Amino acid sequence: xxxxxxxxxxxxxxxxxxxxxxxxxxxxxxxxxxxxxxxxxxxxxxxxxxxxxxxxxxxxxxxxxxxxxxxxxxxxxxxxxxxxxxxxxxxxxxxxxxxxxxxxxxxxxxxxxxxxxxxxxxxxxxxxxxxxxxxxxxxxxxxxxxxxxxxxxxxxxxxxxxxxxxxxxxxxxxxxxxxxxxxxxxxxxxxxxxxxxxxxxxxxxxxxxxxxxxxxxxxxxxxxxxxxxxxxxxxxxxxxxxxxxxxxxxxxxxxxxxxxxxxx
Amino acid sequence: xxxxxxxxxxxxxxxxxxxxxxxxxxxxxxxxxxxxxxxxxxxxxxxxxxxxxxxxxxxxxxxxxxxxxxxxxxxxxxxxxxxxxxxxxxxxxxxxxxxxxxxxxxxxxxxxxxxxxxxxxxxxxxxxxxxxxxxxxxxxxxxxxxxxxxxxxxxxxxxxxxxxxxxxxxxxxxxxxxxxxxxxxxxxxxxxxxxxxxxxxxxxxxxxxxxxxxxxxxxxxxxxxxxxxxxxxxxxxxxxxxxxxxxxxxxxxxxxxxxxxxxxxxxxxxxxxxxxxxxxxxxxxxxxxxxxx
Amino acid sequence: xxxxxxxxxxxxxxxxxxxxxxxxxxxxxxxxxxxxxxxxxxxxxxxxxxxxxxxxxxxxxxxxxxxxxxxxxxxxxxxxxxxxxxxxxxxxxxxxxxxxxxxxxxxxxxxxxxxxxxxxxxxxxxxxxxxxxxxxxxxxxxxxxxxxxxxxxxxxxxxxxxxxxxxxxxxxxxxxxxxxxxxxxxxxxxxxxxxxxxxxxxxxxxxxxxxxxxxxxxxxxxxxxxxxxxxxxxxxxxxxxxxxxxxxxxxxxxxxxxxxxxxxxxxxxx
Amino acid sequence: xxxxxxxxxxxxxxxxxxxxxxxxxxxxxxxxxxxxxxxxxxxxxxxxxxxxxxxxxxxxxxxxxxxxxxxxxxxxxxxxxxxxxxxxxxxxxxxxxxxxxxxxxxxxxxxxxxxxxxxxxxxxxxxxxxxxxxxxxxxxxxxxxxxxxxxxxxxxxxxxxxxxxxxxxxxxxxxxxxxxxxxxxxxxxxxxxxxxxxxxxxxxxxxxxxxxxxxxxxxxxxxxxxxxxxxxxxxxxxxxxxxxxxxxxxxxxxxxxxxxxxxxxxxxxxxxxxxxxxxxxxxxxxxxxxxxxxxxxxxxxxxxxxxxxxxxxxxxxxxxxxxxxxxxxxxxxxxxxxxxxxxxxxxxxxxxxxxx
Lengths: 264, 293, 270, 356
Description:
Largest sheet of chain D: 2 strands, antiparallel
Oligomer: heterotetramer
Number of strands of chain B: 2
Largest sheet of chain B: 2 strands, antiparallel
Distance between the termini of chain D: 27 Å
Shape of chain B: globular
Number of helices of chain B: 12
Order of helices and strands of chain D: HHHHHHEEEHHHHEHHHH
Low-confidence stretches of chain D: 1-15, 346-356
Number of domains of chain D: 2
Low-confidence stretches of chain B: none
CATH architecture of the largest domain in chain D: Orthogonal Bundle
Helix content of chain D: over 70%
Strand order of the largest sheet of chain B: 1-2
Number of domains of chain B: 1
CATH topology of the largest domain in chain D: ABC transporter involved in vitamin B12 uptake, BtuC
Radius of gyration of chain D: 22 Å
Shape of chain D: globular
Mean pLDDT of chain D: 87
Number of strands of chain D: 4
Strand order of the largest sheet of chain D: 1-4
C-alpha cells in the first residue's frame, strides 16, 4: 500500500464457484513488486483456488487479473509460465519417475528451441541446448544444496528434499512472480526454518515477487511483507504483518468466533 | 419410410443388447472405480459354463444355479487377488489388470470347456412379427423385453433394498462407507457377482443368436462407445447410449454404408463416440470432474 | 528407554500438570503414535492421548498440526489414504485395535465423521441415515424408531429427508454426517472440523446437539477443531497439537483460560 | 536412502569395465548370430523377436514414457506395412530403406491424427481413439482393393522381394541384418529422444500433467509428438513384420491380438524403459517355445495346439497381474534389482575381506 510503484499483480473482483458452491467471492488485492505476500486463512478459505486461477488451471467466473500491467480474464497455464509466473504445489507435484536434474530441467521446457529431429539425431543445436539447460539446472541445484542428489530419482528422496527440488524447479526458468502453495507443510521445524530462509533469500537476491500460502503463522508473520487473510472466499484483512496479528477478526477466524462470550 | 422405421427399430432393439453389456461395466466402474475390460470374457465364461452344463444334461434351472455360484466364486477371487492388492493404484493400472484378467478368464473358459461353437437354444422363435407394414424380429423383441426386466430388477435392487443403498453409498464415497461400517470388500464381491449375472443374461441372449463362442467376448468392444456416449457412471446413460449406438449404427450401415462399400459397423460406433468426446467429454449422463492441484 | 525420555521432555514443555482421564475408566488410549504418509511425509510425530467413557475431548491445533491424521489413525481410515502408523499403540478398552479395518472398528463402536462431511451425495438424506443404521441389522420397526430418534435431534433433517444429500446446505450436510454416524450406535465419535465452512449460528446449534447427545446418551467425542474457544467450551479436557506433537494438555477450562493458545496459533508477539 | 547410494556407487565403481566387456561381447554375438544359429532360430525366433522389440519400443514411448494408453499398436503397424507395400509397388525406384522411412512417416502422420483426441481426453478414455484406429484400418485395408493391389487373397507381399541397393536380402541372413540394422538405428534415436527435452516432456506429462502445464511444458505438443514418434516406429516395425518376417501379410496379421501382444510386451518388460521392450519381447517370443518344450517333456507326446494356446493365455494373464501388483516396472526392474543385490553382496564381501 505504501509502495509508490505500480503493483506487480492485481487481483480484481475475482469470483469462483464449483457446482454452485462459492469458493471465492469478489476478491481483490494487490501485490507490490518484490514483496512477499502471504495468503492465510482456515482450510477451505479459497487460497489454493486463487493460485490455480493465477496459473490458469481454473477459470474464474468473473473478475480479472492484472499482471505487470496486462489484463487477463482467463490465464492459460502455458501463457502464465511464458509470462514468468512460477509455481510450487501443495502436495508436491514433482515428476516422481524422473531424476532431480531432469525435474528441474523440465522447468526450462518453454525455452527449448531444438526440434524433435535435432534431438533424435543429437545435432549440434540440440547438444548445445542440452548442455546449457544442464548447466542452468546445476546452478539452481547448487543454490539449494541439491547437487549431490542431481541424478537420484525423485521418488526415492525424503519429503523435505523433494520440497526443495520443487522450489528449484519453480525458479529455474527465472520467473518474476512465484506462487507457492504451503511450501512448509509436512516438515519438521528445522526443515521449515531452512525453507523459509531460502524463500527470503530468493526474494532478496533474485528480486522475486512471491505470493505464498502458509499455515504456520509464526513463520508467515516473520517472512511476509504483506498478509492477506481469507475466510469463506472473502478477504478478511489485508495489511502489514503487525496489523494482522492484532486484528480481532483474524483472531476470531483462527481461534473461534465466541472468544469473548466464552471468556465472560 | 417403412424401411427407415424398420432399420431404426431393428437398431434400437439391437441397442438394448449393447446396453445390457454396458450396464455390467457401469456397475463395476461406479462401485470399484475399475474399467473392467474383462466384462466380455466374463460374459463368455458365464454363457459357456451354462451351455456346458446343459449339454451334459443338467436341468436348466440347476445349471443356472451352478453358474451363479461359479460367478460369485469368481467375483470373490477377483476381489481378493486383484482388487485388494491393487487398491489405491491408478485407474490405468487397474485397467491393464483387467486386460490380464480377461486373458485368464478366456483361457480358462476355453481351456476347460473347449473353443468350438456351441449352439444354445433358449426356445425363442425367431419369426418376424408385423406391426402394420413394419417387420420386427421376434427374437430382438424378446431380448429387449428381457433387458427391460433386468433393468427394472436392478433398479429395484438399488433403490428398494438395504444392500442397494449400501452399494450406492460405496459408489459415492468409499471412505465414508468404510467409516460407518460398510464392508467395502464384501460390496465389491457382490457388485462383481451382479455384473457377472448381467453378463450371463447378455451372454445367453447373444449366444442364442450367434452361438456361444469366443467372439462373444468381443462385445466388450461394442460396449465401449456406448459408455463413452452415455457416461461411465450412469445406468440410464448405458441404456440411452446403447440405444443411440444401436440405432445410429444400423441407420448408418443402411444409408451411409453403400457409399463406403459397406461393413462400416465395426468402426462407426467408435467414430460416433469420438465425435461425442469432443463435444461432451463426460458423456451424456456423466459428471465433469474438477481437478485439484 | 526412549519412551520415558520423550515423556520427560514433554513434561518440561508443559507448564501445568497433566490431568489424566479423571476417575472415569479409559475408553480409548493412544500412546506414542507416529504416522507417515506415502512412506515419506511425517504427519504425526508423537501423540499420546486418552479418552474416558462418555467424555468430550477437544483436539486443537492450527491447520496441518496433525489433528486429522490422529483421527484417521484411530478410526483405521489412515490406510485408505496411504498413511501408516509406524510406531505406538491404539487401544480400545485396553485391547489393541491398530491395523483393524475401519469398517470393523465401526462395528466395535468407533465412528469417524470426516472433515468436509463426506455425505453420500447421490443418496437422499434419509438413505444416508439408513446406511449408518444398517450396521447392526435392526428390524424395520427398530429402524424407524432410530430414524425418528435422529430426526428428533436434528429436526432440519426430517424436512429434507427426500432431498439428495448433495443438494443440502453445508450445515445440513454436517448434521447429516453426524446423524448418520450416530445411527451406528457408537461409543466414540471422532469429529473432524465440524465447524468448518459453517456460519457461526449453525456451528452453535451443532455443538449444542453434541453436548446434549453426550449428556443424554453418554457418547464420547473426540473433537478435532481449529475453533479452540468453542470446542473448549463444550469439552471436558483438551490437547493442543503443534507440528505433530502434543504441545499442551489439560482440563478444558484451564486451557481456555491460558493466553498462550494465541501464541501457538498466531506465533510469538514481537 | 544411503542404501540406494551405496548400490549406485557399487554399480558404477567396479562394474564399468566388466559392463563394457559384456556389451562388446553381446554386440559381437548379435552380429555373428546368423553364423551360429540354425535357420529355424533366425527365421522363427531372432527376427520376430527383434521386430516385436521394435514395436514394443514404439509403444513404450507413447504408453510407458508419455503415459498415453493405446490399444491400437496393431493399427499403426498395419499402416506402416501397407504404406511400405504401396511405396515399393508404385514407386519402385525408391530404395527400400527410404521406403521404410516413408512408411514410418505415413504411420506417424496417422498416429498424430488419432492422437488428437488425447488433447481433450485422458486415461483409459483414450483407448477409444486407439481402438477406433484399429477397427477403421482393418476395414479400410480390406475394403479397398487398391491397398492390396487387388490380390485375390487380399494379402500383400513385396513384388521384388527385399533388396537394398541391389543386394538381395531375401535369405534368412539378409532379413536378419535388415531387421537388426533398423532396430539398432531406431533404438539409438529413441534413446536420444528419451534422454533429451522431448523425453522429459513426455515423462512430465505422464507423472503429473497439470503441474507440467503450469511449469511451462507444452503438453499438447508433447502428446502429439509422442503419438507421431511412437507410430513412426510402430509403422516401420509393421513393415518389417510383414516383409522381413512373414513375407506376406494381411489385415489379420495386425489385428487386435497384435495390439494386446505389444502392450503385454511393455507391461512385462517394463514401462518407461528402453530395454524393457527387449526383455518383454524376448519373454513373449520364448514363452511359447518353453511351454511347448515343457509339455513335450512332461506329457511325452503331442499336446493339443488349442489347449496350449489357452494355457499360454492364462499364463500371460497371471504374469501381467503379477507384474502389475508386485513389480510395476517389469522385468527391466526385476533384473536390475537382482544385479543390484548381487553388486551389494559383492561389495559386502569386499568390505569383510578388507576388515579381516
